[in-house]
Specification:
alpha+beta, Arc Repressor Mutant, subunit A, three-stranded antiparallel β-sheet, 6 helices, about 50% helix
Amino acid sequence: MLATEQQKELTEYVFNWNRKNGIFTDALHTFSNVVTPQAVTDYSLTEIWEGDLYFCLEERTVFVGSQKVDLTTKEFDALHLLIINKKRVMTFETISYHVWGEDYIEVTTQAIHNLMSRLRQKLQTAPDMPNYIISIRGVGYKFDS
C-alpha cells in the first residue's frame, strides 16, 4: 500500500501524463475542476476503460476519446448493465427489468431496440469507432469492444 504522499504523487503523475498525451483531455479538465488529485485518493470510483470508451458509474459520465457523451438515465443504465456483463448476452427481459425497474413488464422489445439504437448512435462519435453494443437477433444485446 502506498503512503498518502506517494498516492498523491502517483495521481498527479497520471493526470499530467494523460494531459500531456491528449488522453481524455476534456474529462481530465472536468475532473481537475471538481476533484483534486488528493481527493481522488480519498475515495475510489468504479471506472471502466474499453478502448476509447471511459465509463464512471458514480459520476455517471461516459467519454469516447476526449468527447463527453451525454446519456439519458435509461441509456446510462443500459450501458452500465451491458458493460459490467461484458460479452454476456443480456436478454430483452433482463434489460427491461434492470433499466425500467418495476415497470419492466410493460416494456416492448421495440422500446429496447429504440433505446439501444440511440445509445449506439451516441457512442459512435466517428465513423471508424467500434460498435460496442452488439445485437443478438431475437435474444437481446451484449457489450463487446
